[in-house]
Amino acid sequence: MNHSSDLMRDRSSRLFTFLSQLAQLRLKSKRTLDTDKDEQVFWFADLPKHSSCECIAWDQGDQAEDKDIWLKITKPSFPNPPTPPTIVQPWIKAEELSNATLDQPALLREIADIAPTNGHSLSLKLQLIDQPDVLDAYSLYLEDKWRPWSLLNQENSKVQQLYNKLFGIFQKQQRLGETFEVVVGLGFLTWHIPHCYEVARHLITIPVRLELEARTGAMVVKINPEDVKPKLEQDMLDLAHQPEKNRLDEVENDLGKAEDNIWDGVSIANALKAWVYSVSSDSDFDPTLLRQHKIEVIPRVHL
Fold first, then answer.
1. Lesser CB count within 10 Å: N end or C end of the chain?
2. In terms of C-beta density within 10 A (0-12 exposed, 13-18 middle, 19 or more buried), how is residue 3 classed?
3. Are 187 and 209 in contact (CB under 8 A)?
4. What's the mean pLDDT in 201-220?
């Protein structure tokens, strides 16, 4: 009787495994991030080291353990352009003065000069080429004031664009509720498998919270205290291109160690290396956050 029960359990287990693998084969996997038009991706590597930005990935190690904020972007301010010298003001194109994307605001080649003559106003044309004092004052204004302002505004504009992107994801999260999950992805895998398919997906995901600070307007990505367990993602790969079970056990073991401190700089890296080195002898691991754009035959993983 016991033998019969064991046999039934074994058959049931085999059937379950078979059906799971069959379902995975039939399921249309999202092998690359851009295959899902509704998927919004924010790359940590795009975040500049700016006074309005914070990123835990910049300070990996033991000190990261007590930090619950992983990423923060505060709305940058955009000061008005500096006022040109009085001698320059009639010559400068006012509509270009506030355009920080220009190399410099242009000067007019000539301006009208109203001069009184015998009780009448006579309109004269002043040529810029004849105004060395204007040109000197303009050059000093550019170097000392306008260009530093322009550079600051350009940097702030990049931060604002990233803020807008996070805010858009936040709005979608608010609109869709629990049906929309926000995760941090680590271990970006790119791999062209000859005669099969291409992959450009993260191997590890961790659920996080995306919040808007009401008083400051800052966008904040926080650890989710209810679920800090990193999850291995392999649905984008056929079974034949995944590591063997004993290797996956090593990966899962390293992921378990990472629960206490995702950003300790060791556990996640060890898990990623254990994974990528087991799928190909030509594989490569890069511990930086730089995003690789090329998809090559060599399986490559960036943090």
1. N
2. exposed
3. no
4. 93
Mean pLDDT within 212-240: 90
DSSP helix/strand/coil, 120: strand
In the numeric block, the tokens 């993602």 are attached to: 233
Q: What is the pLDDT of residues 47-79, one digit of tens each?
A: 999 999 999 888 877 666 667 889 999 999 999
Q: Look at residue 202 in the predicted model and tell me its pLDDT.
A: 94
Distance CA 279, CA 119 (A): 92
pLDDT at 73: 96
Residues 202, 187 contacting (CB under 8 angstroms)? yes
DSSP state letter for 217: -
Q: Which amino acid is at 280?
A: S
Average pLDDT, the chain: 85
Question: Is the torsion defined by CA of 255, 257, 262, 267 positive or negative?
Answer: negative
> Among candidates 33, 40, 43, which has minimal Cα distance to 289?
43
> Looking at the DSSP assignment, which residues form a beta bridge with residue 204?
186, 232
End-to-end CA distance of the chain: 53
Quote the CA–CA distance of 275 and 295 in Å, as a whole number.
Answer: 18
Nearest to 57 by CA among 73, 75, 39, 69: 69
Alpha carbon distance 140, 146 (integer Å): 9
C-alpha 41: how far from its chain's center?
Answer: 7
pTM of the complete model: 0.78
The CA distance from 287 to 268, in Å, is 10
Instruction: State CA 225 to chain mean position distance.
Output: 23
What are 37's two structure tokens?
A: 């038009």
| Identity of residue 90 | P
Of the candidates 122, 138, 239, 230, the residue with the CA atom closest to the CA atom of residue 184: 230
CA distance 226 to 58: 24
| Burial grade of 56 (CB within 10 A; 0-12, 13-18, 19 or more) | buried
